[in-house]
Amino acid sequence: MKNIDEKLQPILAQVIRRNAGEPEFHQAVHEVLESLGRVVAKQPHFLDQALIERICEPERQIIFRIPWVDDHGHVQINRGFRVQFNSALGPYKGGMRFHPSVNVGIIKFLGFEQTFKNALTGMPIGGGKGGSDFDPKGKSDAEIMRFCQSLMTELHRHLGDQTDVPAGDIGVGRREIGYMFGQYKRLNNRFEAGVFTGKALAYGGSRARTEATGYGNTYFVQAMLQTRGTSFDGKKVVVSGSGNVAIYSIEKVQFFGGKVIACSDSTGYVVDENGIELALLKDIKEVRRERISEYARRKGAGVYFIAADKGSIWDVACDVAMPSATQNELSGKDAAALVKNGVMAVGEGANMPSTPEAIRVFLDAGVMFAPGKAANAGGVATSALEMQQNASRDSWTFEQTEMRLAAIMRGIHDTCHQTAEEYGAPGNYVLGANIAGFVRVAESMRMLGVI
Ligand code: GLU
Question: Is the dihedral of CA 286, 292, 293, 295 positive or negative?
Answer without folding.
Answer: positive
